[in-house]
Backbone:
């Protein structure tokens, strides 16, 4: 489904918005609620297309799930409660749904087929299908299980210690979720850098013990999950677009409310501080399993910086909009160690560089990231495309706020994947 938007410069951004629920946490709440015994009520659920794909896949496996405007109720029937689906499980555009669901299905004695859209069909799945096979799952698919369509039949699993070549919460979560299905065996995932730990935190909320250290996580199989109510904090990856907008649109001051500030996700806040942004973080008291804050950002004078190493997994989805931020910073910004960008919804090194270049940015691709020289005036008067990638679409819509001439954005609809109210929020803040 394609849709285009004409976007113009904005004189200032003022006011406050409530950031919609976190995508990673919304997916997990539906999945873990489906595996648990009892009723899980999820509030502030993200009504984005990706999370609705997760809901529909678990409904097809017989789980009763009701969705009523940001409140989702899941009637879990326990870890053995999933039924063999009579239809294909369609994950749409969602890598998280695909990889975590493969982990869950690995130890479930049913057969399932998984397909998604054309972007999903290009995303590498061997990073989960290979370790899951080594635990005992039968998985097949295009190019020996590297790409969708995939088919899976769960088996009797054994625990493994898996040293992942990539820092990926999707890989870690898939293996840990499979590990829960072993008979009292230990499963450990070791990563090169720590990835987001929402799975570990939420499993504990569902009553399952998870052992964590600096870069590893361990579960013991055979434990039941107990249903619990989950409040989903606002998604810092969605907040990132308005954090950058607030910093680069002149005379702005905006407050972003209820933003999740899990330290494995706050790389964007570190970068804004490193670049000299005026930012205030007011943490809420009495949090449950994920910390939450209101964040105030003002128009800022910015300097270039170097972003790499263990900061990368903490901001991987924010790199497109960080590249835009860097076009408005004095001097050079180097983003390195980020080759994972090549296997997201698009090759985000290529799409960021090609679309920002059309707007007049001084940006070049490297093997594992990009180098941006600022500060440049974005001229606009160009047609750019999301390439079907929600984060590229939102980055370009924020670029339009400061470009001298209007921009036409092709396929703005892609934004619905993670932030369906994005344009309403932008309009609300625009003065
Ligand atoms: O576990 C998750 O919810 C996610 C993990 C990250 O992917 P990787 O695990 O591939 O790094 C991230 O890019 C994605 O948007 C969501
Ligand atoms: C990479 C992303 O999501 P997923 O892997 O779930 O498709 C994203 O939201 O930027």
Residues:
């Amino acid at each position: 489904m394609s849709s285009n938007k004409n976007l113009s410069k904005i004189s200032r951004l003022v006011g406050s918005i409530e950031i919609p629920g976190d995508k990673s946490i919304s997916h997990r709440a539906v999945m873990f609620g489906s595996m648990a015994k009892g009723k899980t009520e999820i509030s502030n659920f993200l009504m984005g297309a990706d999370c609705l794909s997760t809901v529909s896949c678990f409904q097809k496996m017989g789980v009763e799930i009701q969705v009523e405007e940001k409140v989702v109720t899941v009637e879990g029937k326990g870890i053995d409660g999933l039924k063999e689906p009579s239809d294909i499980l369609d994950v749409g555009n969602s890598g998280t749904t695909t990889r975590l669901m493969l982990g869950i299905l690995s130890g479930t004695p049913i057969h399932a087929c998984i397909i998604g859209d054309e972007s999903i069909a290009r995303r590498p799945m061997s990073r989960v299908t290979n370790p899951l096979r080594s635990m005992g799952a039968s998985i097949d698919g295009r190019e020996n299980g590297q790409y969708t369509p995939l088919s899976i039949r769960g088996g009797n699993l054994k625990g493994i210690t898996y040293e992942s070549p990539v820092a990926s919460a999707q890989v870690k979560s898939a293996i840990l979720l499979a590990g829960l299905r072993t008979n009292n065996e230990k499963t450990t995932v070791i990563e090169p850098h720590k990835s987001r730990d929402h799975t570990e935190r939420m499993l504990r909320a569902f009553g399952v013990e998870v052992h964590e250290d600096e870069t590893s996580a361990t579960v013991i199989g055979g434990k039941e999950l107990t249903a619990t109510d989950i409040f989903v904090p606002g998604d810092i990856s969605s907040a990132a677009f308005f954090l950058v907008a607030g910093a680069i649109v002149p005379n702005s001051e905006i407050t972003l409310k209820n933003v999740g500030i899990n330290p494995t996700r706050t790389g964007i806040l570190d970068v804004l501080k490193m670049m000299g942004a005026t930012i205030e973080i007011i943490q809420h008291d009495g949090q449950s399993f994920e910390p939450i804050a209101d964040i105030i950002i003002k128009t800022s004078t910015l300097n270039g910086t170097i972003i790499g190493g263990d900061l990368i997994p903490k901001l991987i989805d924010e790199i497109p909009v960080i590249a835009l931020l860097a076009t408005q910073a004095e001097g050079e910004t180097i983003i390195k160690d980020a080759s994972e960008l090549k296997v997201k919804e698009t090759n985000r090194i290529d799409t960021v560089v090609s679309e920002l270049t059309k707007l007049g940015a001084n940006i070049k691709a490297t093997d594992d990231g990009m180098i941006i020289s600022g500060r440049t005036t974005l001229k606009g008067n160009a047609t750019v495309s999301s390439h079907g990638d929600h984060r590229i679409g939102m980055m370009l819509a924020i670029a339009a706020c400061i470009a001298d001439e209007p921009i036409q954005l092709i396929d703005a609809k892609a934004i619905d994947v993670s932030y369906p109210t994005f344009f309403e929020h932008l309009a609300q803040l625009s003065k």
